[in-house]
Design brief:
This protein has one domain. Helices cover 43% and strands 14% of the residues. The chain is built from 1 helix and 2 strands; from the N terminus they run H-E-E. The protein has a two-stranded antiparallel ribbon with strand order 1-2.
């Protein structure tokens, strides 16, 4: 249960917001990497 919440908070929620904002086009591949400071993820 804690792992599911962590994945939702750190991956699903931020990614969903960026998709809704139109940052990623339909059919595109989205890559998640560790941020340079080691805190969080960077989507590209």
């Amino acid at each position: 249960r804690p792992l599911k919440r962590l994945i939702q908070r750190e991956v699903q929620d931020p990614l969903a917001m960026r998709i809704l904002e139109g940052e990623f086009g339909e059919g595109k591949t989205i890559r998640a990497d560790l941020a340079p400071d080691g805190e969080g993820l960077v989507f590209s």
